[in-house]
């Protein structure tokens, strides 16, 4: 299987381990990732300032994937939601489609639709499949409890994303559980982590984060597990700030799913960037056992 990868703007700077761990697990599972060097931002930061600019950014990337007869995958929830939304807009809004294609035409591009936008979790669960992943697992986790955090933009709005059914033991929980961990039920699992408020209202951002951490702790979780770059930064880098600024908070480290799965697949910790997370997650390796 070959697929174009939309990388998140923030990961090359702040989360290189998400890039390296994603590359490693997909290679291990037989997925050929195509990096299209002309790809730009998905347009998410422009959503509330210019609908046309917002749509043009994603439409351009979709047209570049279409040109190569490839579907498009991303590991960023914001990119996922934006690309899915623009795909719908380009299909349903004829006037916008005409306007965007006029702009794309300056680069010799045009988007006619038909490119399927996939989240990394969907590729793992639906395209590769749980059975194939299980066959590649060389170690499983024992006596480890994980609080799974989806992130807002992968689930909502449901009518556009169609990613999973909120409130059920959905695909992310199942992908985490196949590594042998016990997933915990926690009250604020589907609530915002506070990342969108960072830089706008830092106190509110910290309040939302603090509540999430408290709920995860009450569930008995040893670690959080995420698949969104912005959620990971909030649970890792900003949680470290929270501990420093608001004394008395006990950390719950957050591990990227690609790191969690990568260790179970036998990929080395350096490739997975285990030491690059700001809150120490190396202790998770003591829970690995040979099946």
Structural summary, described in words:
- The protein is an alpha/beta fold and 291 residues long.
- It has 2 domains: 2-119, Glutathione S-transferase Yfyf (Class Pi), Chain A, domain 2 (Up-down Bundle), CATH 1.20.1050; 130-289, 3-Layer(aba) Sandwich (Rossmann fold).
- 48% of the residues lie in helices and 11% in strands.
- It has 13 helices and 10 strands.
- The chain has helices at residues 11-14, 16-28, 51-67, 77-92, 94-104, 120-136, 152-155, 158-161, 171-177, 202-218, 229-245, 257-264, 269-272, and strands at 2-6, 32-34, 72-74, 117-119, 140-141, 145-149, 182-183, 223-226, 254-256, 288-289.
- A 4-stranded parallel β-sheet has the order 2-1-3-4, sandwiched between helices.
- The model has no long low-confidence stretch (mean pLDDT 90).
């Amino acid at each position: 299987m070959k697929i174009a990868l939309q990388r998140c703007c923030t990961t090359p700077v702040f989360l290189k381990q998400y890039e390296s761990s994603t590359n490693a697990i997909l290679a291990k599972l037989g997925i050929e990732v195509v990096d299209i060097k002309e790809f730009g931002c998905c347009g998410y930061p422009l959503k509330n300032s210019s609908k046309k600019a917002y749509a043009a950014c994603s439409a351009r990337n979709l047209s570049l994937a279409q040109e190569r007869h490839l579907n498009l995958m991303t590991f960023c929830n914001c990119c996922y939601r934006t690309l899915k939304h623009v795909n719908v807009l380009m299909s349903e809004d004829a006037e916008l489609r005409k306007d965007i294609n006029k702009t794309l035409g300056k680069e010799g591009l045009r988007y006619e639709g038909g490119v399927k936008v996939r989240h990394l979790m969907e590729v793992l669960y639906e395209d590769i499949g749980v059975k194939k992943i299980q066959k590649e697992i060389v170690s499983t986790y024992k006596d480890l409890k994980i609080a799974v955090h989806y992130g807002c933009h992968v689930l909502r709005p449901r009518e556009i994303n169609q990613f999973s059914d909120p409130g059920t033991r959905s695909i992310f929980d199942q992908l985490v559980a196949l590594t042998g961990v016990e997933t915990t039920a926690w009250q604020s699992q589907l609530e915002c982590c506070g990342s969108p408020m960072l830089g706008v209202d830092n106190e509110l951002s910290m309040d939302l984060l603090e509540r999430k951490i408290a709920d995860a702790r009450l569930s008995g979780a040893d670690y959080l597990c995420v698949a969104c770059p912005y959620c990971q930064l909030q649970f890792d880098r900003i949680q470290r700030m929270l501990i420093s600024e608001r004394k008395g908070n006990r950390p719950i480290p957050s591990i990227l799913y690609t790191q969690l799965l990568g260790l179970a697949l036998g990929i080395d910790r350096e490739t997975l960037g285990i030491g690059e997370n700001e809150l120490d997650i190396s202790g998770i390796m003591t829970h690995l056992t040979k099946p």
